Amino acid sequence: MERAVSISDVMRMRMEGDAAGLCRATWSENHDAALYATAMLGGAVRTPEVVRTLHTCLAREDEPPPGLGWHALASLGRLRVERAVPLLLSTLAESEHNRRQLDEVACEALLAIGGPEVIRGLVDLCERLPSGRGRWTVRVLEALAALRAPEAVTPLLATLWGYPPDLAVRVVRALGAIGDPRAASALLVLAHSPASDTQLRRAAVQALHALPAAAWPSPHRHPAAERLLHTPQRDPDPETARLATVLLARTEEGRAHLWDVLRGAADPSGPGCPPHAVTAVCAHIAAEPGLFAVPDPDEHRALLAHHLREAAAPAVRRAAAGALAALAGAGAAGALVAALDDAHIGDTVADLVAALPEPMLSSELVDLFTRPGGSVARRRGVARVLGLAGRTDAAPVLLSALADDTTPVGVRASAVDALGALRCAAAAPLLVALATHEEQPGTLRAHAVRALGSIGVPDTLPVVLACARSPHQAVRRRAVVALGVFPVPEAARALGEFVTPDAEPDLARAAVRALRDIGGPALPVLVGLAAGADGLPEDVGHRLVEALAARPEVKATRALLGLATAAQDQRDGATYAASGERRLSRSTPAREVASLALVERGSARDLTPLTALLGPDTWSGAHEPAVQALLRIGTEEAYEQVLAFCYGTKHFYAWHVGAIDAVAAARGIRLGP
């Protein structure tokens, strides 16, 4: 037995390139040092002595330190020792029946080594898959999927039918990852069969979707692949239906079937089709209209227009509108404008009209907006189009509708939104009057406040500040958001008043987001709020830290560092929320987010904050990313900080070893001859 050596001794050996010393240290009476030395050998030169030592660690007859075999396997994988493949395969196979829990590390080592022998060994294990259980089965399948081994397709297909559905799903996923067209026929049968459960059908279609596009359609001819996809295209699971739609769209025969789906859904006496399946067809037409182009498109356009008018489900009407706009372009204007009367899909249709390649004339839109007898839904939709399309010449008409108290509230609200989208400064006085008029509907006043924020006339700041204190919730929230467009200290200070432990969570979130939008003038407020970040409702503290992280100033860094390194025993103590309470925790969340934010700032000037994150009382979850940030900085001072931290660690992980290897490599230290 080697005399007891410390972790520091092991680190010193590594930094001196003493591979022989590490080999001896694997027998140390200090179990932690033995484990560390074994892990360190994974970065050594692959000499016979090192390989023999690692094999010995696995075959020791005495009672080795717990975890020694795990690290030995990991090191063999890092060294890519091909001679270790039989040992790794046997370890993986035996893990099904023992408690050493070496299946994961054995798999990772096999994947690191790769090569034909690894593939053959894993394929041989396929014969045992149906009788296997638990993690062992999963590991083998995941390894075959990662290696994308075509040799595994036949044995996997042979095992597929002996599995219950939950395990068959994993086999199907492995076949999908391998991406071999030979699996297509079996996958099609699974996707088509009503005997397959929902997850299995979805996995089969996902695997088919993952096959190379050049190998589609499958050579499965009787029946053809397209016919077998008819059933999954109508599957109760929307994702299965969507993926089957995408596969069908790849071929002319498949696209013809998709049009038949739309025809059947339009016929009340035809076969039933789930609305989400019809929606999937329309959505794919909208996504790839070029695939569905035909010499004579009139029938197809008429079919989409029919669904836009007559479909019972709003989701189908909405998707049909998108498909029609993509397929017909400007030719869809008439049908889309008519659909503005549909209150359920009006916003979607208005967005499509505004984006048409040959937009409607402003005069036509104004006529629709002012025409007597026009529905509220249509007028709202037209107003939205005018705003989105940037029709500033329509501002007088919108202003007139807004000033008329007899105009329906919904139309006035849409006119307000349109004026805000147009950034119409001339509307500011009227919007101010509306926002401050207590007798006007609260929702209308809220729209007016939002429009004032969109326009951003500096003189309207006092009005927005006053609205931020309104007793009406919608007005108050819109005002808080609107303050974010006024980059002045007065707005920032007002927003800070809404970020308190007792604040409404939604209002506090909006205030923090607005402070971030304000930028530099908000920094003093953000710094002042940082100390109480953990006491804020729900995730507001996290958002506050993110707002600080967006600022490059030194003050922001100091505030983040104060949060990240605050000792837990100096706080009010950990409190956890009961059901229905606003606060989730006051112990560590903001501390953790602040730590990770500091890591993202990692540069040579941020060396001190990064080093502070490695202190003894800091959050352990930040240690690895802080070390990685120091390694990226790459100065000698940064390397010394990494080594000092690793020398002082009481519990090491694989990333400690990787960090030391990185420093050694940067200094040109070779571990071994």
UniProtKB/TrEMBL annotation:
SMART domains named among the record's database cross-references: EZ_HEAT
Highest taxon in the source lineage: Bacteria
Pfam families reported for this sequence: HEAT_2, HEAT_PBS
Protein name per UniProt: HEAT repeat domain-containing protein
